[in-house]
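Reviewer comment 2.1 asked that we show a complete input and output for one of the modelled complexes. We chose the zinc ion case, as it is the one discussed in the main text.
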Amino acid sequence: MTSKHSDLSRLCVHTITTKPWSIEMAAKNYAMAGVRGITVWRDALENRNIKATGNMLRNQGLEIVSLCRGGFFPHRDRSKRLSAIDDNRRAINEAYDLGTKLIVLVCGADPSQSLEDSRSQIRDGIQAVLPDAEAAGIRLAVEPLHPMFADTRSAINTLAQANDLTETLNSIWVGVAVDVYHLWWDPNLEKEIKRCGSNNTLFAFHISDWKSPTIDLLNDRGLMGEGCIPIAKIRSWVEATGFSGFNEVEIFSDTYWKEDQTLFLEKIVDSYLSHS
Ligand code: ZN
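Response of the prediction step:
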C-alpha cells in the first residue's frame, strides 16, 4: 500500500490512461490518489470550454504537464499537409487556453511515400507552426515512436532521429519526449538521452511497460514492473541530464480500460512507487 511518506510529487497521469473516465472524473480521482500532474489528450476536451477545464484542473491541484497530441504532418497530398498544419495551430491555441506550456508531437508518416519524404515534411510542418508556438509560449516535443509504427504514425523512430531533427530546427521551442515504451530497445538510448540533455531539449518523459508477450501492438501496454523495460535505469539516465519534470504514466490497454478505473489507478500509484 502507498504510505503517506511516498513521493508522488513528480507523478503525472495521461487522461488516455484512464480513458473510461471523463476529464472531470479523472481530475477528481487523480487528485484524491495523490497524483500531481495531468497530461490532457485532446479528445478529453471535446464539447468543453477549454479555459474553464484548465481552471478546473488547477483547482484540483493538478499541474497540466502537456497537451497530447499534435503532429501527423506528412501526406503525399499537399492539401492534407496544409490541413495538418492548421490542426497543429488549433492544438497550439488549445494548449494556450488550457494553460499548459507543452504539446507532444506524434509526427506522422504516409506509407505511400518514403520515410525520407515523410521526415522532410515533418521538418517543414514543425517549421511552419513554430512562429505560432513561439507567440503562444508553447514548446513542442517530438516523440520518437517504436519502428513498428513507422508506416502511419511516425517516421521518427529513434531518439537519434528526433535529436537530429531538433538540432536542424535549432529552436528553444522544439525538443523531444522520451517514452520508454518506444525507445527501451535502442542500444544508443543512454548516449542519445545525454545528447538531448546537453542540448536542453529533453522536455518530457513517459513511462509504461512492454508486456511479454504483447497481444496488441497498440493497446496492450503494461503497468510499470509488468514487463521487460528497465524503467528505473532509463529514468536514472534522464535524471542524470538534470531533468526534473514529471514521470508521465501513459498506458493504452484494452485490458485495464475494462477494469474498475479506481482500482487501476491504485495499481498505477503502487507500480510507480515500486518499479520506476
Ligand atoms: Zn508517449
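Residues 1-5 have pLDDT under 50 and may be disordered. We note this here for comparison with the apo prediction described in Section 3.2.
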